[in-house]
Write a structure and sequence with these properties.
- By secondary structure, the chain is α/β, with parallel strands linked by helices.
- 43% of the residues lie in helices and 13% in strands.
- The strands form five sheets. A five-stranded parallel sheet has the order 2-1-3-6-7, with helices on both faces. A five-stranded parallel sheet has the order 9-10-13-8-14. The chain has a two-stranded antiparallel ribbon with strand order 4-5.
- Strand 11 and strand 12 (270-271) form a beta hairpin.
- The longest helix is centred in the first third of the chain and has 21 residues, at 101-121.
Length: 467
Amino acid sequence: MSHILVVEDEAIIRNAVRRLLLRHQHEVTEADSVDAAKALDLTSYDMIISDLRLPGGHGTDLIELAGKVPVLIMTSYASLRSAVDAMKLGAVDYIAKPFDHDEMIEAVKRILANREANETNSNTDAEELPAPVPSSETGIIGSCEPMQLLFRKIAKVAPTDATVLIQGESGTGKELVAKAIHNQSRRANKPLISVNCAAIPETLIESELFGHEKGAFTGATAQRQGLVEAADGGTLFLDEIGELPLEAQARLLRVLQEGEIRRVGSVQSQKVNVRLVAATHRNLKELSSQGEFREDLYYRLNVMELHLPPLRDRGEDVIEIATTMLARACEKMAQAPMHFNADALKAVRDYHWPGNVRELENAVERSVILAESDEVAPDLLGIEVSPDRYLSETMRNNLIENNPYQPTEQNEEQQGDLSLDDYFVHFVLENEAAMTETELAKKLGISRKSLWERRNRLGIPRKKGGR
């Protein structure tokens, strides 16, 4: 039985919430003002439900005093701004009045279930976390301390239904983490639906995620189930959620808040029971401050945040991963077992791996294809060549100068040799890791199609998984 404090100045609403919670086997204490609540030991409760506007102050005034106890804010001021402000101050969630009884109970159940996961998120003491799950069970290889801590957090959060946000650079294996969370959860025998938000055209993403009715738009010749609905009872993994359009973000927020969806072109809503795991290589907090990502959605996603370290920060893990990939690639290509020589191991260990595990996997497979014996030498990996191999000799020479594009007596003649292609190549190589293809095209003042065509003409491959 959970002990819940209800802080509400309107007696009718307070009594209604109390009766509702008692019917669901919760113990309830009541308070009718901020001062009355402050007179209690707020840390002794399992959860606090408080109105936003109260005599003597705001319900958010109780958040700091409550410590780790989650606070659910009720508000009849159902504006987005007041709800987001409450969550910024530390409220775990909000609910707009008048609320549906089922909606309230679902919110309470979710918050109580996630409380343990929230505490884990702020706890970095490995001794208080469960033992790491063996890599054979997660499918993720990692012996360094950051990965061991990640495994412990996965083991802690997986059995709950907490929303998880996975952050890490492209190619670090965020989808493997999502699969590990699903496989260790109570939903393991239900579907795991993976969606790359950056791979679906903006005009189709709402239909793909939420489904559509027949005749909802041109080409909708039949009713179609969406991917969220297909994940009902299981886990929905949204990769690169930072690329989700704002309209789709609003619909996703409804899934998290109400547990229901409405197909495009439908007037009927239907309930779904989905556990959400999201991933991104972008800073969602920064995007929300710029108006490119909904603040309220960010705070709902960020219940449990997992950081996946880049390969360059994982020490000797890179050798273990490369060796495992080599054995796997040999088996896949029906080759006899191979091994890295000493120089190849040093190259693997010392290389920066900007593409992370994905780039390492490509390098290993390349070496297996090109090897003429059972020994893999560093030249077969193709990693000894610096990223500026695509630059022309003129561009490379000018980049060495302190002011390469400032006309002087020494380089004035060379300036005539610099081409727009040189500038294009340099800009793309400098920025492609931090920008999407759409952002690159916009900065260059060309269309995304033109960017793709020029990449092909100049031989600048788009990184696998790029957008």
